[in-house]
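Following up on my earlier thread - several people asked me to post the actual chain instead of describing it. Fair enough. Here it is, all 222 residues.
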Amino acid sequence: MDKILLVEDDPTLIRMLEQFLREEGFLVHGVNGQRLAAEAMDRERFDLALVDIVLTEGNGFAVCAQAREKGIPVIFLTASGDEYSVVTGLDMGADDYISKPFRPRELASRIRSVLRRAGKRQSVVRLGELVIDTDKGVVSRQGRDLFLSALEYKLLLILLNHRRQVVSRDRLLEEIWDSGGEYVEDNTLTVYIKRLREKIEPDPQNPQYIRTVRGLGYRLEG
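Reply from S.P.:
Thanks for posting it. Predicted structure:
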């Protein structure tokens, strides 16, 4: 499980992000300033640092420099429209930035993308005969590429990001709508799950990858 250092001096935002990112499958350690961030990095190993540029104690640029020395990728949280800070942060070696206010699911997607680029998260996942290459956007089974629609692929990625966890139908509908800007009805979701199973499952009537958890939702196995 990937471990994230969150450096932010807004306690409300720290609590919100800690809860959200834990639900997304990350371990999170939140601190509110440069000194505590440095102490945490000396004491523990982190896979990524999520850093607000403007801190009450110290500043995000110094935290970025300390993180880079330890080989920790960095995503900056910046005030909307602060172009100077964005450019400075990227010049210092930050891997990405996201402007406030931001959509939490976009942040989770950016985190996973940076972790993949940093080699800390696999871009190729094998589930039995099924192979999912998230960098190339290719899904194959027994060496043959499967042709998934954009929405089918989104569904598979959402389930993959929560592998072995139950994802409710409401959560799937929310994430599809949030990431694609398109509204999907509950009945339509059932149709897309059926189509996805027909493409990835050896026996769609007895699915081994996408399991239905009655009354709760779906779980990706393997």
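The CA atoms of residues 67 and 73 lie 7 Å apart. That should answer part of your original question.
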